[in-house]
Design the sequence.
């Protein structure tokens, strides 16, 4: 069978490469053509464009590159129609992919499958009309999306498991390093570790890391270890950590979480990763205009939580210090409740068990590959 895939960023490249490998395992004759990245190229097939030619973020960069974006979109539409795949597989990246879905649905008989559904529960809920009209099957990696799509919008979807949970599970099954060995490898002391996960973008790090360090440094019987994001130069981190007693670990976040006593985490996938390693955490995120953002969160925004842990549990498992509650004092207060053994810490760990139960243990790439192959064979 012929499969055409489109991704627009690094995470999509990773998830799509796993899906392609899984499709190969169920379909010996699988052929791939794609707008994607290096990891997809490693699996095989023909890369038409690299996702870096598509990925512009922010109003000004998008405006400056509009001609390039439109050329790539037109090229993509033509290439799909000319190649006539048995299935078009879109991976996240809704701004580009939903436009492609509309064109392919209205001009061809090629089935459109969407892997890693657009997060319209957070913003742009009106896109549900486009999804219902143009997407034949939707594959979700977040369990709370099932009632959103199926009950609220009467649109059946497939929940296929969570790739982050799968990656953590695979890491934990193969990781054998002891705490002492990890500390020796990174020249750390024997004190318990407070892990700092300050995000993957410079602005996030600038906004959040100083308060995170201020709070964690108040616990002198612990050591602060910062998980450095790939792609951020060490010199950038040095501006915030020099002279503050913070140790740096690069490209080793899962090992760090394996040995951390607690963590201070910005929102995003890192909150779920921390929970999957059973590390008690406080989630924090500084925003501009904190009072206005707090008002919007309470009265206008539809999403109750910013952390995936709380969104999956549909209740507050971890404390979220955002907007007007973000401060070093509040982070330190939360850490003082998390670090010692006690009911508060135990209650959070029990909540993690609830989250893991909702996620399940299915392999999203394997599950999605089997469903797509079965659908394509029938058609």
Sequence:
């Amino acid at each position: 069978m012929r499969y055409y895939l489109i991704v627009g960023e690094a995470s999509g490249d990773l998830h799509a490469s796993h899906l392609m490998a899984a499709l190969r395992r169920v379909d010996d004759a699988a052929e791939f053509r794609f707008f994607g990245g290096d990891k997809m190229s490693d699996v095989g097939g023909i890369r038409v464009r690299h996702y870096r030619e598509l990925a512009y973020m922010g109003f000004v960069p998008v405006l400056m590159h509009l001609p390039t974006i439109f050329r790539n979109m037109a090229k993509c539409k033509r290439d799909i129609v000319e190649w006539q795949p048995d299935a078009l597989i879109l991976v996240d990246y809704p701004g580009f992919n939903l436009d492609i879905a509309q064109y392919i649905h209205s001009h061809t008989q090629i089935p459109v499958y969407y892997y890693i559904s657009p997060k319209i529960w957070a913003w742009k809920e009106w896109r549900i009309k486009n999804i219902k009209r143009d997407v034949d099957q939707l594959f979700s990696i977040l369990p709370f999306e099932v009632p959103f799509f199926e009950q609220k919008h009467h649109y059946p979807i497939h929940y296929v498991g969570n790739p982050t949970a799968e990656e953590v599970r695979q890491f934990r099954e193969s990781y054998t390093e002891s705490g002492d060995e990890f500390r020796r490898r990174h020249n750390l002391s024997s004190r318990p570790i407070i892990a700092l996960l300050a995000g993957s973008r410079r602005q996030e790090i600038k906004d959040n890391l100083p308060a995170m360090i201020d709070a964690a440094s108040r616990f002198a019987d612990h050591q602060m270890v910062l998980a450095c994001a790939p792609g951020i130069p060490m010199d950038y981190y040095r501006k915030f950590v020099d002279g503050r007693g913070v140790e740096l670990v690069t490209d080793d976040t899962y090992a760090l979480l394996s040995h951390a006593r607690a963590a201070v985490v910005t929102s995003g996938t890192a909150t779920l990763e921390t929970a999957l390693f059973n590390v008690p955490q406080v989630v924090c995120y500084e925003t501009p205009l904190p009072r206005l953002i707090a008002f919007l969160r309470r009265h206008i925004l539809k999403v109750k939580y910013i952390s995936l842990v709380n969104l999956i549990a549909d209740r507050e498992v971890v404390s979220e210090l955002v907007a007007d509650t973000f401060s070093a004092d509040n982070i330190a207060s939360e850490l003082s409740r998390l670090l010692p053994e006690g009911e508060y810490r135990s209650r959070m760990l029990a909540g993690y068990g609830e989250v893991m139960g909702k996620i399940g243990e299915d392999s999203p790439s394997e599950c999605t590959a089997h469903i797509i192959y079965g659908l394509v064979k029938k058609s």
